[in-house]
UniProtKB/TrEMBL annotation:
EC number(s) from the headed UniProt entry: 2.7.1.39
Organism name: Duganella vulcania
Catalysed reactions, semicolon-separated: L-homoserine + ATP = O-phospho-L-homoserine + ADP + H(+)
GO MF annotation list: ATP binding; homoserine kinase activity
Class of this enzyme: transferase
Positions of the Aminoglycoside phosphotransferase domain: 27-258
UniProtKB keywords: Amino-acid biosynthesis, ATP-binding, Kinase, Nucleotide-binding, Threonine biosynthesis, Transferase
Pfam families from the UniProt entry: APH (PF01636)
Tagged with keyword Lyase: no
Protein name as annotated: Homoserine kinase
Domain of life (superkingdom): Bacteria
Gene symbol of the encoding locus: thrB
């Protein structure tokens, strides 16, 4: 729904000369963003996406943009950031940080079938492996520390049943995060928000992952759990769809085999991934940011998923 910082084609002259993109031909605001101002940009060299970052700073952005660059360089399907003539991926436009990345073909697949889940699983595993030598590090900023910080801010708004669930799950996750199995899990840069709306498909062909702005270093299994909790469920109940789960996990496993520790950690990790988004949705719902222009996502969706993951064991990682 939003372009927060308007930009016209005129504004890009001569700004765009620092990029190897030729002359700008067309610029169109993208309505669906909620964090940043995004534009489809056509130049003499092709189709790109121009983003003006409304919240992230020049200091915070290199982790995300350089990660995308690193992954694109290694053949993972993600938007490739375009460097300017100084080799910079982030430059100022209208006084804010901005970047240009390649445009992915296709559109989001909001009614995924097993074939789509398999493509996402395989690309996710390739992404994890391709990032092992990524030199920058940043923790997952929406990890356990953030959950601990956020819980007291949302508890006062919850009824007894939800407050009990949140306290009990935090307790459970604190214990899980220090157990031996958890310590053995493989870690690295993860996307951490790989929902249906952050992947493009052209028919059944996956064309790319995008929106890396929740990325950070965390366990690979957390990334898998976040992804399964969105792609492989019935949206009205949160119940896992066995065929889609199997397709995604088998495809991931074929590229990067799951370990025994991951197998043991799978059920608690699915709960962790549900808790993470229940908390952020609760926070956005009850403590909306000033100037927030969108109706917050429904927190009860992830409350349902969390209750369901606690009640019903998910299919195992290895079929
Ligand atoms: N590299 C890209 N290629 C194609 N479309 C993109 C790309 N980046 C963003 N988009 C489009 O812009 C929309 C908003 O992007 P998103 O990253 O979700 O914005 P925000 O971070 O502001 O929420 C996406 O839904 C998608 O349609
Ligand atoms: N996927 C999260 C919210 C993050 O929004 P995005 O559009 O940037 O992916 C949720 O559904 O709560």
């Amino acid at each position: 729904m939003a372009v927060f910082t308007p930009v016209s084609l005129n504004d890009l002259t001569p700004w765009i000369d620092q990029f190897p993109l030729g002359q700008p031909l067309a610029l169109k605001g993208i309505a669906s963003g909620i964090e940043n101002s995004n534009f489809f940009l056509t130049t003499e060299r092709g189709e790109f996406v121009l983003t003006i970052f409304e919240n992230l700073s020049f200091e915070q952005l290199p982790f995300y943009l350089k990660l995308m660059h690193h992954l694109a360089d290694r053949g993972v399907l993600v938007p490739a950031p375009i460097a300017n003539d100084q080799g910079e991926l982030i430059v100022a436009l209208h006084g804010k940080p901005a970047s240009i990345v390649t445009k992915l073909d296709g559109k989001s697949q909001m009614d995924p079938q097993p074939v789509h889940c398999a493509a996402v699983g395989a690309m996710l595993a390739r992404m994890h492996l391709a990032a092992v030598d990524y030199p920058l590090a940043q923790p997952n900023l929406r990890g356990l520390d953030w959950w601990n910080e956020t819980t007291p801010h949302v508890l006062p708004f919850l009824d007894d049943s939800c407050a009990h669930l949140l306290r009990a799950e935090m307790h459970f996750q604190e214990a899980f995060a220090v157990c031996d199995t958890y310590r053995q899990l493989q870690r690295g840069p993860v996307h951490a928000d790989l929902f249906r709306n952050n992947v493009m498909f052209d028919g059944e062909r996956l064309t790319g992952f995008f929106d890396f702005y929740f990325a950070g270093c965390d366990t690979w299994l957390f990334d898998v759990a976040v992804t399964v909790n969105d792609w492989c469920i019935a949206l009205d109940t949160g119940v896992l769809d066995a065929a889609r789960v199997r397709a995604m996990l088998d495809a991931y496993h074929a590229v990067r085999p799951f370990t025994d520790a991951e197998q043991t950690a799978w059920q608690p990790m699915l709960r962790a991934a549900a808790l993470r988004f229940w908390l952020s949705r609760l926070y956005d719902f009850h403590q909306p940011r000033e100037a927030e222009m969108l109706t917050p996502h429904d927190p009860t969706h992830f409350e349902r998923i969390l209750r369901e993951r606690i009640a019903t064991p998910a299919p195992g990682l290895r079929g």
